[in-house]
Write a structure and sequence with these properties.
single chain; 880 residues; mainly alpha; two-stranded antiparallel ribbon; 2 strands
Length: 880
């Protein structure tokens, strides 16, 4: 550098050190700064500092006289170690293991500003180094990000804390090289992210840049006695720094970059990129001076390096690690399939040869499906992880009028809700609550199940190791408070809610309770039950509320309750038994009938049974008389009116009355369910019964009943009854149900496939083949509703087809050809010209086959089926 340039550089540095903002922040005066900057001395020293890579020690040699004048003394261990500890303590004030050095504030500010100046000049004259420099997001990239404000705040915090200067000092005085690792991870992350953006993948570049630059800052937060636990504790301290500086989105990704985080099923693309980049930048030994050498490994090489470093490796831990490595390998293969250069040799996308899916072998087909799944998850997680787009999804879900679209949204929330933040979960739960007023019963049931599951998993648990004596409170509202709130909203809805909607909402309560108790932790189940029990202590409920509570009671596990709490339930039933309301009395007797086997030794229970049976007018209603008989039998109590109970099982008029009552809209749905149970018990007990008439009656209930619970009860009873029918009777019922599919109205036909698909597998092979031909005709219908329910029936058949061979032994080839025929009919739906039929085919293959245990894994690997799916998938245009 010539003298003129040197003079200009000196003047620029002098202006930097005498700028008003700097002097104010550093607590210095302009005259003091000018006094210590002897021009001749500084120009001579600056000549060495403006060539090659800057040394922190050389900058210190220049600044040390001025620093000593500002501080009044020199640190005992030298300036660089003192400055290193001083800066760390400023970043993490809890580091009380580092001595306080406030007397060095002015000296540190002066030195760090000088160092920053020379490092800036170094970056201008030297080529980019992936282990030294950061290529942060550009203004153009920043303008397209919803996190622009947060990223600018991150850059300001990064600058104010002199984090880059801290890492440069650490490189010279410490054996490890934090800068090389962090800069290397940032380089790989941005290299990959920018290429993915070119391919159309929604990657937020500022978000991944901030997370990559901050991902290991927590290592500075670990105290001296925590050094051995740095690999486990630095996640917490990284999160702490980000929370202090209000960087929630950057912090969430930066603090969750562990390889074990890949055990989660779905991650945002930014998290995947950071974990992938961090995985590939590792220690590659030490030089002759004992300094760490940072290496950039391939994915496979890095896997071997890390596997050798894991603590306490046993077979289980190694298998876990291989599983998470396979996730990274799938992600890398996905990027390669997009043309992304992962070996860091070029920033340009690589040309990708296009191959016809029909020419792929089975392994290549599986890889293609993996890529489709990864792409889908990335795009969906991008929408769900952003507040604005998540709100758009909820609004779209609220406004849809198609129940299949609503079902699709519910499935999305069920799959991805564990990755939502607390605010998003609350928004989703409000939506689910509103869906419990939906006119479609199965939508209400699905919404109730999901609401219980979301409450059970609402609380965010801190998954990383915490330092000693540290407790993290992640949200002011916990799942127990939410549960109490929704209990009140379900049992006591707003006065503006109409009566019909109140009943629909109340019927959902038991579904919510069952789902909540099935999905929560075992030790928390009692805590969730206690708020519900409080409603049973009140005996002044109106009939409608009392019935809802009685209907919900069987969903409460009695084993969780102590004697006093069980007595509350018994007293509640005994009190309301005197109400002259048929559905309440039926609900009470059903509850007692289910409880009887477990409480035959309980005096309180037997007292309740006697009290209830004394007041319930069982003689007038055959369904109640039947339950009273069952309760006495299960409790070992004497039958008071044997003639009446004998009439229930032997009088043919009872059957005729049941057929009439079950088809009346005025008959309570509980009574209809009891009547079906009575019919089945009569048949099982050997009483001569018109079985075909019963089966036809059940099929009618399945098709036309208004209450969803009645439809499902009818379908389940019909499938249990199938083995007891003759072949011709089974065929009659199958034809009757098939006619139900042709109705064309989902309100009536959508419940049939679930049970028809099972029922027809009791047909003789000849009749079954004829049924398949008839169902094929329905699938070819121009009415998309009829075609869709035909597809659903094929899906259920394929689920349960493995049981057919044991019922009707036949040649293996015949059996296998029929299976292929059914699978072919389902795949044919992918090529249908109607969008709704295509979507239903995709639903059947994904949800009804691959997501179920019935369809054996070896069947899933059929290369023909896989290739057909892939070929047809590529021709489909699935809307967002």
């Amino acid at each position: 550098m010539d003298k003129k340039q040197l003079q200009l550089t000196y003047k620029e540095l002098q202006n930097t050190l005498t700028a008003r903002d700097f002097l104010q922040n550093a607590g210095l005066h302009k005259k003091d700064v000018l006094a210590v900057m002897d021009k001749g001395v500084w120009l001579e020293a600056m000549e060495k500092l403006t060539t090659g890579e800057v040394s922190c020690r050389n900058v210190l040699n220049l600044c040390s006289p001025a620093m000593e004048s500002f501080a009044g003394s020199k640190p005992k261990d030298g300036w660089l170690p003192a400055l290193y500890g001083h800066m760390i303590r400023k970043i993490y004030p809890h580091r009380d293991d580092i001595p306080a050095t406030d007397q060095y504030d002015k000296a540190a500010a002066f030195y760090l500003e000088c160092l920053r100046f020379f490092l800036k000049k170094e970056k201008e004259r030297l080529p980019f180094s992936r282990i030294r420099d950061f290529d942060f997001a550009t203004e153009e990239e920043l303008a397209e990000s919803p996190y622009e404000e947060e990223y600018r705040r991150f850059l300001q915090c990064f600058s104010d804390a002199y984090l880059y200067e801290l890492m440069r000092i650490g490189r010279e005085i410490m054996p490890f090289d934090m800068l090389a690792h962090v800069a290397g991870v940032h380089h790989i992350a941005m290299h990959i992210a920018r290429q993915l953006v070119k391919t159309g993948i929604p990657v937020d570049l500022p978000l991944i840049s901030g997370a990559a630059a901050a991902h290991d800052i927590g290592k500075y937060g670990c105290r001296e006695n925590e050094v051995r636990r740095i690999p486990y504790l630095h996640y917490y301290y990284t999160d702490l720094w980000c929370r202090v500086h209000e960087l929630p989105n950057i912090g969430h990704i930066a603090a969750n970059h562990s390889t074990w985080d890949l055990e989660l099923e779905n991650l945002t693309v930014e998290s995947l990129i950071l974990i992938y980049a961090d995985f590939r930048v590792k220690n590659n030994g030490y030089d002759e001076k004992g300094k760490e050498i940072m290496g950039f490994y391939s994915l496979a090489s890095s896997f071997a390096v890390i596997l050798n470093k894991l603590d306490n490796v046993d077979t289980a831990k190694e298998n876990r690690y291989r599983h998470v490595y396979s996730r990274l390998e799938d992600f890398e293969n996905y990027m390669k399939a997009l043309g992304v250069n992962v070996d860091l040799t070029s920033c340009a996308l690589q040309p990708i040869p296009q191959r016809n899916p029909a020419l792929l072998n089975i392994d290549e087909t599986v890889d293609a499906f993996k890529n489709i799944a990864i792409d889908h998850n990335i795009r969906l997680m991008h929408k769900l992880s952003r507040e604005l787009t998540f709100g758009d999804i909820l609004e779209a879900a609220r406004s849809t009028r198609n129940w299949k679209d609503t079902r699709a949204y519910l499935n999305i929330f069920a799959e991805y809700f564990t990755y939502m933040n607390q605010r998003q979960k609350q928004m989703a739960m409000n939506f689910l609550y509103d869906l419990m007023f939906h006119r479609e019963g199965d939508i209400r049931r699905q919404a109730a199940d999901l609401l219980g599951n979301m409450i059970a998993h609402y609380d965010v648990e801190y998954g990383k190791e915490l330092p000693q004596n540290v407790n993290v409170i992640l949200d002011e509202t916990d799942s127990f408070q939410l549960w109490k709130r929704y209990l009140d909203r379900i049992i006591l809805p707003d006065h503006k809610v109409i009566d019909r909607h109140r009943r629909w909402l109340g019927y959902c309560l038991k579904r919510v309770v069952i789902s909540l108790l099935e999905n929560c932790k075992e030790e928390q189940r009692k805590r969730y039950v206690v708020p519900l029990l409080a409603y049973y202590q009140e005996l002044g409920w109106i009939d409608e509320t009392a019935f809802i509570l009685l209907d919900t009671m069987p969903s409460i596990p009695m084993v969780l309750l102590d004697d006093a709490e069980r007595n509350v339930c018994f007293r509640f039933m005994e009190h309301f038994a005197s109400r002259d309301v048929l559905e309440i009395q039926a609900a009470i007797l059903l509850n007692l009938c289910e409880m009887a086997p477990a409480f035959t030794e309980s005096k309180e229970f037997l007292h309740t049974v006697n009290g209830v049976l004394d007041v319930v007018p069982a003689k007038e209603e055959k369904a109640l008389a039947y339950l009273a008989y069952e309760i006495r039998k299960n409790c070992g109590l004497p039958q008071k009116n044997k003639a009446a109970y004998q009439e229930i099982f032997e009088d043919s008029a009872v059957v005729s009355d049941i057929f009439l009552d079950n088809l009346k809209a005025a008959t309570p749905w509980k009574i209809k369910i009891i009547n079906m149970r009575l019919l089945y018990d009569r048949i099982c007990s050997g009483v001569t019964m018109p079985k075909l008439h019963v089966a036809t009656h059940l099929s009618n209930l399945l098709k036309v009943s208004e209450q969803v619970s009645v439809r499902h009860a009818a379908g389940e009873t019909l499938v249990k009854l199938a083995p007891m029918l003759s072949w011709d009777q089974r065929n009659e019922v199958a034809i009757e149900l098939t006619k139900g599919l042709e109705i064309g109205e989902f309100e009536f036909s959508k419940y049939i496939p679930q049970y028809l698909g099972e029922f027809v597998l009791f047909l003789h092979p000849k009749e079954l083949d004829e049924f398949i031909k008839d169902l094929e005709r329905l699938q070819n219908s121009t009415n998309d509703r009829i075609a869709s329910v035909a597809l659903d029936t094929f899906g259920v058949m394929l689920q349960h087809y493995g049981q057919y061979q044991s019922r009707f032994p036949e040649l293996a080839q015949v059996y296998e050809d029929r299976r292929k025929k059914i699978m072919g009919m389902i795949l044919k739906g992918f090529a249908n010209y109607q969008e709704n039929v295509k979507r239903e085919a995709f639903w059947v293959v994904g949800h009804e086959l691959f997501a179920q245990d019935y369809y054996l894994c070896r069947k899933r690997k059929s290369s023909v089926s896989a290739k057909k799916c892939l070929c047809l998938w590529n021709r489909m245009k699935i809307p967002n």
